[in-house]
Design goal:
This protein is mainly beta and 116 residues long. It has strands at 4-7, 13-15, 18-26, 36-37, 49-54, 58-59, 67-74, 79-86, 96-97, 108-115. The chain contains no helices and 10 strands. The chain is elongated and about 45 Å long.
Length: 116
């Protein structure tokens, strides 16, 4: 499967020589090993994606319970990676990358893509 992209607000905002776009990403039902591949073209930019910034670190789904997920743009691998953990009263949350195949289809994250 793959990410589902939904544009938010203005299509593109100019930042000098670069541009930024805002998107809601819906995750899928089978998380790929080492994250979702992302390119600038997926965000309406040329293929040069400088940085992908989640607008909030914690992503939420339909049923939250004690699970929590954060997302990170891995610039070296050109992927969006998801880390998860379970909250406990004594230990807080220890985050590790979610295993391949995990169903995250009830989760969305808003990101700002910056590139050329």
């Amino acid at each position: 499967m793959t990410l589902t992209f939904t544009k938010v607000g203005e299509w593109r905002t100019s930042l000098g020589g670069a541009s930024e776009t805002t998107w809601d990403l819906t995750l899928d039902n089978s998380y790929p090993t080492q994250g979702y591949a992302v390119t600038g073209r997926q965000f309406g930019l040329s293929n040069n994606l400088i940085r992908l910034l989640p607008s909030h670190a914690l992503i939420r789904g339909a049923s939250q319970g004690t699970s929590a997920y954060i997302v990170e743009h891995d610039q070296t691998q050109a992927t969006l990676r998801v880390f998860g953990g379970n909250a406990t009263a004594s230990a807080g949350i220890a985050f590790t990358e979610v295993p391949a195949g995990r169903d995250l289809s009830s989760y969305k994250v808003r990101v700002i893509a910056i590139g050329y």
